[in-house]
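Two records follow; treat each independently.
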Amino acid sequence: MKKTLVVEYFSKIEDTLINQVILEIEKAAVNGFERVVLLIASTGGDTDAGIKGYNYLKSMIDKIQIITFNVGFVESAAISLYCGGEERYAVPTSHFLIHQARQNYSSYTVNKIKNEIKLIKENNKRSISVIKDNVVQSNRKVLEAYYAGTTLSPKEAENWGLINAQTNGIDDNYFKAIGSNYEYFSLYK
């Protein structure tokens, strides 16, 4: 059985937490682990951090197998992190929320707002690019879903090509498939 690191990411997408995931995966790769299973339940958060996580996971494909798993909800910036998996799964009662980047502008100057709008547009482009690169839908369909704000069931996500398959959940059968040679790392906040 493959030596596996199971990482629970049950929090908002934040740079410090993504850095922790990166550190744990780096340690796993150095210590002979062959696979990482990243369990995700996240309402999203920092778009830059989500894309950083995505880029990192994709860069590790030749070094260690990365499997991402939606165990409840993968929303907003968490979609990018989720898409970093070489294999992607979801439990039947989970969902995915795709929407454009947002920002709260309370007490900003006009110049600050202009800069933030530029950043939001760039984040939208990068997020759309990640989604397009990981689904089988047309560019038009992805753009429509992204700008409208769209929730996908696992079945819809499977039709999109966002997930490889639905599973029956995280149960004893899942851990039998992983084998007894695994370690846990949890991120809760």
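The next record belongs to a different protein.
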Amino acid sequence: MSAHQEVSVERETEARSGWVFTLRVGAAGASRPVTLRLSWADYDRFGGGRASPAEVARAAARAALDLGDDELPDAMDAATLARRWPRFSDRLRNHLPR
């Protein structure tokens, strides 16, 4: 992830099968909203109870930035990101609080 790319959670909404997060991504003063969907199954797979859903969502966006998406899409799904990059799960876990 570029040093100037910050990721923060603006809003968390419960959905039928998980959560929808509005994240703020980018440099200070030049950030933009990004929507990330996180299913209950993906939360269990990535977070394993050691982090909140919001922390997993933020870590997912950071992992995507690390793995090559300098500009995240306006909307994304954690499962799709995991299928795109084989190392996504490990990278996401590295961004979770210890």
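Discussion point: The CA atoms of residues 36 and 76 lie 5 Å apart. How would you locate this feature using only the token line?
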